[in-house]
Hints:
Helix 3 packs across helix 4. The model has no long low-confidence stretch (mean pLDDT 94). The protein has 2 domains: 153 residues, 2-enoyl-CoA Hydratase, Chain A, domain 1; 48 residues, Lyase 2-enoyl-coa Hydratase, Chain  A, domain 2 (Orthogonal Bundle). The protein is globular, with a radius of gyration of 19 Å. The chain has 222 residues and is an alpha/beta fold. The protein has a 4-stranded parallel beta sheet, sandwiched between helices. The protein contains 10 helices and 8 strands.
Amino acid sequence: LRFDEKVRVVVFKSEVKGVFCAGADLKERAKMDDAEVGHFVKRLRNLMDEIAALPVPTIAAIDGYALGGGLELALACDLRVAASSAKMGLIETTRGLLPGAGGTQRLPRCVGIGLAKELIFTGRQVDGQQAALMGLVNHAVPQNSDGDAAYQRALALAKEILPQAPFAVRMGKLAINRGIEVDIASGMAIEGMCYAQNIPTRDRQEGMAAFREKRPPQFIGK
């Protein structure tokens, strides 16, 4: 996906009705020794980092439970859509653990430090509507009879992104992701570098021409 230029948006969904991702298999984990657990969690963290580093927008469609590592997977995505009835939580402290695949870092960046601490310290689960109110998800939608309401809303969101200039969207994601980690002056410099890369693109010229000619632009990602 990272190197396929035809890919414009990635949507993560589950094939299991009622569950987005229930997290690690604790019965399997119980059979591991300490070294094996450390290796397992490191691989999991690396996977989430790879998802977060995808250059195109990513959307998590949460139609059911997203617990522990399951919520960490959703947090590694750029955008999250949840069914109102979905249940989400970093529940690791209820099992004698702490989030180890990015949850302690991505949740506070998403909802703020105080709320993230409360959710992690208590291991509390929240539904889709509560998650939307706290900014954990972008949209919460009523579940439908097929159990895929979040997926359908995620597809609609993806279709809003698809017509936009692919390279500009990628540069926008890069500027946001890098800029949020630094002071604002450094962030402005990052934005400037990303903008400079976009200036010579054919899509920028097409966007300007389409505006002048009062027609929809035809972007090609070049």
